[in-house]
């Protein structure tokens, strides 16, 4: 598989197809992130499209010392936060999510092990700033340093916000112990 | 050494600080090693979080859709080179750029070709163009005719064919207030395809010479039937707030992907020279302000006259007193009910709906000549015939936008150009404000079918005459009124309270307490004034989703539009010295 910088180099040389390869590669990740941010699939789809268009226009600014996915998430996070601010609208939980009732199947318990689990719709109850940081950390697995770069804030602020968001989420969490009985604290 | 602010860090982490203080703590920790080590200690205990919930799939065509959009964008690296040149204040070598584009296009992979045109630029000339479609088609507004007569319209004749359908750009009209293009569409047998709403898909772009997207949201393009043709237009005032800001060259790019239901690809770029129309644009600065007795502040900014229109720019807002009273009312009525938690549904709360109604307001004004004769008028109430002052107004280039908490609005209203006048007067006619209303009528439907029922309430007089039940989903005309879907229809005649010109926010409740949404028919709504000046009209209510006839219905409306005539403001406008 070609590295992103190689694809970008091809694009620079005029091969637009190279960019569609980038879209193919990242569309799922960016869409999933935006969907978790905004809670509505059509809106997330539109935003994803806009993010790829924005990224295309700005691709000349990309520098390889930044991981490409982190660079893309930077555009996605900023675009999404701007959009949420612009709309002054809280993320909506639609029928799509309300139907997601989770049962504690053995598979899930096994998977969860030492983690805390949280339902997507509960995550939507958090403030935008908190949600974005938790998604970047735990879903996208970005490092603190990368999150700092994505959101243009110091690493210490990333740590602080993650901790605070964690705390806020706690009331919604389902603690799961490896293989043991599942205790649902509050859902 | 222990940091004195570490307690604040604890408060921060427990989310006990206000937002502004939180930001200060964040800034402090960035520089304090003690707090940083405290943070490490606490932060290390965090456990992983797994987010549950499925992600709905993306459509298969997603990448293709993105690729289609990219085809209209300037090549990114090139745009960057140009940006840098602009930044360095160096002139851009356009010839070189075209060469670059050609080179690059040559190696572009098929299917993703960049939309680049080397065609001649459309440039309005002063030649009289009486045969222009902007002059001859009935639907043309006065401004279009004027622009055509003055030669600000150009024949284009560019064509593109796909799937047997040929799209021809017939003519373009362009000046700093608008761009309008007339399209002709013919099938493979040369038969003209009439415009039918909803059977087209596509996108329009507006770019400058450097390929910069001037309308990134892609909105504001109006599509419509225009005689046998299709007219696509865009109001430019929402992109450029003065004539000087309009670039000398604009490019309209269009890409239809569906025409009369046939999918395909019809793309063209139309570069347009704006220079001449910009040169003749005249802006008269006015900057006069007035506060109405109701606390509505109106500022008349300027009038710009270009070949196709005179465009009046206004700003309005509510003064502090009015805003205060408004918020007092909202609090009193419990309408400040926006949810703190995320919404389960994308629906406004009842209070938010009321807030939306109560913060919308409108104006009516006249433009008079030296003898006091009305040469133009604008009236934003629903039924303009009530005042009869609307004249020479061009709605396709009129718009407005709002911002902020004091109901600030910016408006620009288009009219047929005010040419040939030296002095005009702007005269405010009315201000329309929405206010809460509490009309209620309880109607026994069996009675109603025997004889009309008259109800007087809250200053209104309503005579309900007939009830019909519509049991089909399809559109149907019942009792002279067209409606769609299942529901009940009640015909009525009404006389509104003094100075009330419109009512809305209808609801119906049956005897079991079920509430239905209700809409009032506007199609034939003939609003007239009685001898006492009160508004009278005849219409019907459609009670949505009513499946069987209830015993009784309580009909109510919650909002009335109040027309205030106690406004006294005239502004002289010197057009040409």
UniProtKB/TrEMBL annotation, chain A:
Keyword set for this entry?
DNA-binding, Sigma factor, Transcription, Transcription regulation
Q: Which CDD domains match?
A: Sigma70_r4
Q: Which InterPro entries match?
A: RNA_pol_sigma-70-like (IPR039425), RNA_pol_sigma-70_dom (IPR014284), RNA_pol_sigma70_ECF_CS (IPR000838), RNA_pol_sigma70_r2 (IPR007627), RNA_pol_sigma70_r4_t2 (IPR013249), RNA_pol_sigma_r2 (IPR013325), RNA_pol_sigma_r3/r4-like (IPR013324), WH-like_DNA-bd_sf (IPR036388)
**SUPFAM superfamilies, per database record:** Sigma2 domain of RNA polymerase sigma factors (SSF88946), Sigma3 and sigma4 domains of RNA polymerase sigma factors (SSF88659)
RNA polymerase sigma-70 region domain: from which residue to which, for each copy? 22-89
Asked if the keyword Transcription regulation belongs to this entry, the reply reads yes
Domain RNA polymerase sigma factor 70 region 4 type positions: 117-169
Which GO biological process annotations does it have? Answer: DNA-templated transcription initiation; response to stress
Give the Gene Ontology MF terms in alphabetical order.
DNA binding; sigma factor activity
Q: What is stated as this protein's family in its record? A: Belongs to the sigma-70 factor family. ECF subfamily.
Database matches in NCBIfam families? sigma70-ECF
Designated name of the protein: RNA polymerase sigma factor
Per the UniProt record, the source organism is Brevibacillus borstelensis AK1
């Amino acid at each position: 598989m070609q590295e992103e910088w190689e694809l970008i180099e091809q694009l620079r040389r005029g091969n637009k197809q190279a960019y569609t390869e980038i879209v193919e590669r990242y569309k799922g990740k960016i869409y999933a992130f935006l969907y978790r941010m905004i809670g509505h699939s059509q809106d997330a789809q539109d935003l994803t499209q806009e993010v790829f268009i924005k990224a295309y226009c700005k691709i000349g600014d990309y520098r390889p010392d930044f991981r490409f996915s982190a660079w893309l998430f930077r555009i996605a996070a900023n675009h999404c936060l701007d959009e949420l601010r612009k709309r002054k609208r809280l993320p909506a939980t639609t029928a799509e999510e309300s139907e997601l009732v989770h049962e504690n199947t053995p598979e899930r318990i096994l998977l969860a092990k030492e983690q805390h689990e949280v339902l997507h719709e509960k995550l939507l109850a958090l403030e935008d700033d908190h949600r974005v940081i938790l998604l970047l950390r735990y879903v996208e697995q970005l490092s603190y340093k990368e999150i700092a770069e994505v959101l243009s804030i110091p690493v210490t602020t990333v740590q602080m916000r993650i901790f605070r968001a964690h705390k806020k989420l706690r009331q919604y969490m389902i603690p799961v112990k490896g293989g043991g009985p599942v205790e649902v604290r509050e859902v | 050494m222990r940091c004195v602010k570490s307690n604040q860090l604890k408060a921060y982490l427990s989310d006990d600080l206000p937002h502004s203080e939180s930001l200060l703590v964040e800034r402090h920790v960035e520089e304090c090693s003690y707090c940083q080590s405290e943070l490490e200690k606490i932060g290390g205990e965090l456990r992983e979080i797994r987010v549950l919930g499925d992600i709905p799939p993306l459509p298969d065509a997603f990448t293709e859709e993105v690729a289609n959009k990219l085809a209209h964008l300037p090549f990114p690296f090139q745009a960057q080179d140009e940006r840098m040149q602009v930044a360095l204040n160096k002139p851009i070598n356009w010839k070189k750029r075209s060469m670059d584009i050609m080179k690059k296009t040559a190696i572009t992979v098929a299917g993703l070709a960049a939309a680049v045109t080397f065609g001649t630029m459309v440039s309005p000339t002063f030649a009289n163009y009486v045969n222009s479609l902007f002059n001859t088609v009935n639907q043309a507004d006065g401004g279009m005719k004027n622009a055509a007569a003055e030669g600000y319209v150009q024949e284009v004749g560019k064509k593109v064919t796909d799937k047997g359908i040929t799209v021809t750009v017939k003519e373009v009209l362009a000046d700093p207030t608008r761009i309008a293009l007339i399209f002709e569409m013919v099938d493979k047998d040369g038969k003209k395809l009439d415009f039918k709403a909803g059977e087209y898909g596509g996108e329009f772009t507006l770019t400058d010479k450097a390929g910069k997207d001037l309308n990134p949201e892609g909105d504001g393009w109006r599509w419509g039937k225009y005689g046998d043709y299709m007219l696509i237009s865009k109001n430019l005032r929402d992109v450029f707030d003065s004539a000087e800001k309009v670039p000398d060259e604009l490019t309209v790019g269009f890409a239809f992907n569906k025409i009369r239901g046939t999918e395909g690809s019809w793309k063209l770029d139309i570069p347009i020279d704006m220079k001449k129309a910009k040169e003749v644009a005249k802006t008269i600065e006015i900057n006069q302000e007035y506060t109405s007795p109701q606390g509505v502040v109106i500022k008349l900014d300027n009038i710009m006259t270009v070949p196709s229109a005179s465009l009046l720019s206004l700003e309005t807002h509510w003064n502090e007193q009015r805003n205060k009273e408004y918020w007092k009312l909202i609090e009193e009525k419990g309408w400040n009910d926006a949810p703190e938690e995320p919404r389960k549904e994308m629906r406004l709360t009842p209070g938010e709906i009321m807030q939306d109604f109560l913060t919308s307001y409108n104006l009516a004004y006249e433009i008079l000549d030296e003898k006091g004769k009305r040469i133009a008028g604008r009236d934003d109430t629903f039924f303009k015939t009530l005042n009869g002052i609307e004249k020479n107004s061009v709605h396709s280039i009129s718009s407005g936008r709002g911002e902020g908490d004091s109901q600030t609005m910016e408006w620009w209203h288009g009219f047929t150009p005010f040419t040939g006048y030296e002095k005009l007067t702007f005269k405010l006619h009315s201000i329309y404000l929405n206010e809460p209303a509490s009309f209620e009528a309880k109607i026994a439907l069996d009675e109603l079918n025997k004889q009309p029922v008259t109800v007087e309430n809250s200053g209104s007089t309503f005579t309900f005459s007939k009830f019909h039940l519509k049991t089909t989903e399809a559109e149907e005309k019942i009792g002279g009124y067209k409606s769609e879907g299942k529901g009940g229809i009640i015909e009525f005649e009404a006389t509104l309270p003094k100075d009330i010109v419109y009512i809305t926010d209808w609801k119906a409740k049956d005897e079991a307490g079920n509430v239905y949404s209700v809409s009032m028919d506007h199609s034939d709504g003939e609003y007239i004034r009685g001898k006492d000046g009160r508004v009278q009209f005849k219409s019907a209510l459609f009670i949505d989703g009513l499946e069987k006839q209830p015993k009784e219905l309580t009909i109510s409306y919650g909002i009335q539009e109040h027309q205030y005539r106690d406004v006294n403001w005239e502004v002289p406008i010197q057009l040409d010295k």
